[in-house]
Write a structure and sequence with these properties.
Layout lengths: L43 H25 L6 H21 L3 H18 L13 H19 L14
Helix pairs in contact: 1-2, 1-3, 2-3, 2-4, 3-4
Length: 162
């Protein structure tokens, strides 16, 4: 493959088969390719801390989404689902594991299901409409999809095949 003169070096391969970075420079040892976040530390307490933070973010996204989804229908519904999908996919890409998407997905799903239960006074947060069901089922489907999509490992700088 060869890059055109207007692409700024993106997508070119050097003579050794290594992908060039976005700025046209070959990858340096230990540096991740353009667009990949820094890896989560391999230490178990640090990784569990990241998973717990993603779980809490999932709870917050569930609460915010349940308040927004019916407020500005259909725009609020799309905004709530887009935020949830972004969180699930971002967690998977950050951690490079399926648990990275499952942690915020679990927090989101438990929160949304708990918010759908009726209170003794007869009040509940979700209205009886198609938007509430699309939000509930669509968010769960998005969490499962993001958790089951196989994430490719980031290319190893200096490795011949990637």
């Amino acid at each position: 493959m060869s890059g055109g003169s207007g692409d700024g070096g993106a997508g070119r391969q050097s003579a050794g088969g290594q992908r060039d970075r976005r700025d046209g420079q070959p990858p340096r040892g230990g540096q991740l390719p353009y667009g990949w976040p820094q890896p989560v530390p391999a230490a178990r307490p640090a990784r569990l801390g990241v998973y717990f933070a993603l779980l809490v973010l999932g709870v917050l996204a569930g609460v915010a989404g349940s308040l927004v989804q019916s407020g500005w229908f259909p725009g609020g519904l799309l905004l709530a689902l887009a935020g949830a999908v972004g969180l699930f996919w971002g967690g998977a890409k950050l951690c490079r594991t399926r648990v990275g998407a499952a942690a915020p997905g679990a927090g989101w799903a438990v929160t949304v299901v708990l918010l759908t239960t009726a209170r003794p006074e007869g009040d509940f947060l979700f209205g009886a409409g198609i938007g509430s069901y699309v939000f509930l089922l669509g968010g769960m489907l998005a969490a499962v999809m993001c958790a089951t999509i196989a994430l490719p490992a980031p290319p190893v700088p200096g490795h011949k095949y990637h």
